[in-house]
Amino acid sequence: MAMTLRLDADHDRLLEALAAKYGRSKTEVIEIALDELAARADKSARTRAAFDRVRTRDADLLDRLAQ
Q1: Most Cβ neighbours (<10 Å): which of 8, 18, 38, 46?
Q2: Closest to 25 measured CA to CA, from 5, 39, 40
């Protein structure tokens, strides 16, 4: 599926510079950035879920430690 991406001049220059630096096309740089952002969001969600499980499981202990 094709898509048109509109960037302001500063972001277009940044994209062009990154593509040149890494020897990639602009499309490849955008795809890499999207993949990395999605992975980071997934990791954050898993971290929050783990924290919530621990907080629920150890609520009594955490209350005692807080006093």
Answers
A1: 18
A2: 5
pLDDT tens digits, 48-60: 899 899 989 999 9
Joined together, the tokens standing for residue 40 give 């980071």
* Residue with token string 């952002």: 37
In the numeric block, which tokens belong to residue 7?
A: 């960037």
Contact 26, 19 (CB under 8 A): yes
Round to whole Å and give the CA distance between 26 and 18: 8
C-alpha to C-alpha distance for 53 and 10, rounded to whole angstroms: 43
| pLDDT tens-digit series, residues 11-48 | 999 999 999 999 999 999 999 999 999 999 999 888 98
Task: Please tell me the distance from the alpha carbon of residue 14 to that of residue 3, in angstroms, as a whole number.
Answer: 19
Q: Which residues lie below 8 Å from residue 55, measured CB to CB, with a gap of 6+?
A: 62
